[in-house]
Amino acid sequence: MLWFDYLKTKIPQIFVFFFMSFLYIATFLMWHLPLQALANSTLFALVIFILYLVSSFFRWRNVQREIAEMQAENARLLSEIKEMKLSQKEFFDLIRVWSHQMKVPLSAIDLMTQTNEKISAKALEAQTFNLNNYLNILLETLRLRNLSTDFRFQTVDVAEICRELVKKYSIFFINKGLSVTFEGAWQITTDRRWLTLALEQLINNAVKYTKTGGLAFKFEKNSMTLTDTGIGILPEDLPRLFDHGFTGFNGRSNQKSTGLGLYLAKLILDKLDFTISVTSEIDKGTKILIQK
Questions:
Q1: What's the structural domain count of the chain?
Q2: Alpha-carbon distance 53 to 7, whole Å?
Q3: How many CB atoms lie within 10 A of CB 100?
Q4: Whole-angstrom distance, CA of residue 196 vs CA of residue 140
Q5: Which of 143, 151, 210, 288 could form a disulfide with 226 if both were Cys (CB 3.0 to 4.6 A apart)?
Q6: Residues 38, 158: one domain?
Q7: Do residues 265 and 224 lie in contact, with contact meaning Cβ atoms separated by under 8 Å?
């Protein structure tokens, strides 16, 4: 195949060689020169031409290899530039969304300090908690995007992690009067810190959009299910639920979502080799399935 490609580039030279050979042979025949001399000279010219083609082929092949290497390097550089531009865009989008969302608890705290009414300790604690959570999401997202060898694997109890997170978010469960149920257990070898961070984003999101009822955790051998009785997710929003900065209809209408929490959760679970899927019904709730 390589020879065929090479010979296609030499068609003009081959045509000239055979044309000159035809004139050479025609001249010998016209003047009735010895055929032995004709045969010897023609054969000699053919050998020289073949040697030229062979040597030229090796030079051409080396040039083609260099061109292929340069094209591959150029493609790699273009890919890196594209990734850098995408990363830069995502970074600025991240900062833009995060800074906008930080204004919500800050405005709430500012309003509390300006009113004459007594500031509720629980309300202030909730807004401070939100500020800390948004800051943590930003820092961990930036850190995870540049993560190389930060994983520390150990055997962890996923149910225990979820209980600790529920306790951390107890102020929201109490304020809304939400119930919590646990069923089963699941022990697995993974990075506890990063898995905790991913599960926290899922629990935070479930509590945020659940006004009545509660959350149910079910653990099995290789999976866990988190079910809430929240407002649900539109079917058309489900495919983009974990996209960077995507808030969906409910997130926009309630003005509570940054679109970062679920993105961070999916980013972490992918790196830890978990799979996550979501099913939901409007006004009935959402079910999240995590599997290993």
A1: 2
A2: 9
A3: 11
A4: 12
A5: 288
A6: no
A7: no
Which residues are within 8 A (CB) of 87 and not within 5 positions of it... i.e. 6 or more apart?
A: 145
Residues 65 and 160 in one domain: no
Structural domain ending residue among the three candidates 26, 47, 76? 76
Strands (E), the chain: 153-157, 179-184, 187-191, 214-219, 223-228, 275-281, 285-291
- Domain range holding 181? 151-291
DSSP annotation string for 207-263: HHT--SSEEEEEE-SSEEEEEE-SS---GGGGGGTTSTT--HHHHHHHT---S-HHH
Is 69 in the same domain as 158? no
What gap in Å lies between CA 156 and CA 187, rounded to an integer? 6
Show which of 57, 76, 95 is a domain's final residue: 76
The pTM of this model reads: 0.60
Same domain, 166 and 66: no
